[in-house]
Amino acid sequence: MGHSLVPSDRVEGTPVHGHSGEKLGTIERLMLDKMSGTVAYAVVKSGGVFDTRYRYPLPWHTLRYNAARQCYDADLTLEELRSGPCELDDTFDWGDRSLAQARPHYWGV
Amino acid sequence: MGHSLVPSDRVEGTPVHGHSGEKLGTIERLMLDKMSGTVAYAVVKSGGVFDTRYRYPLPWHTLRYNAARQCYDADLTLEELRSGPCELDDTFDWGDRSLAQARPHYWGV
Hints:
Two copies of one chain form a homodimer. Helix content of chain A is 17%, strand content 38%. Chain A has helices at 8-11, 78-83, 98-102, 104-107; strands spanning 5-7, 15-17, 23-33, 39-47, 53-59, 63-66, 71-74. A six-stranded mixed beta sheet of chain A has the order 5-4-3-2-7-6. In chain A, 28% of the residues are buried. The interface between A and B is medium-sized, with 30 and 30 residues.
């Protein structure tokens, strides 16, 4: 409580709620810059139709921890999330930075 | 391969080898600064006597990924690791930064 640090495995699995409090998904993992050790973005897993799972990248700075609800709040709607980059394939290589470069407005880089 | 990013859940569970190639332990989790999203240190779990598990904090910048051995290399010996701060209790609150302040020479802060 009140600490400045959080364990990586406590972040993984934490829900993400949107602008109006609706659940956007769950943080599946964090993508870290190997050199600096800084989180580039969180991979948020979201339920889709026919039980498919979409994965969306969200920059760390867009996520604010909500201690009362034990979730992260992101200031965007489900529609905005879905209009951004996403990936269906579970084996997608999130380490590929070229994706971020193709979508600079969304990834916040 | 050759990417600048690594998933947090791939770092967790990765072995850490020491100065002479000896195994120091395994990365259990990463402690992240909530605001900046930067790794403060890795918590390295190491086997002890009578199946106890010691946990040691190692700053991110001390760990270099060794692709050939699929481990992280740290430029210290098992003796140096063991002479640093450690914790036996599984429920120890690693988020408490005051520990780091008490041992600045070791934690690299």
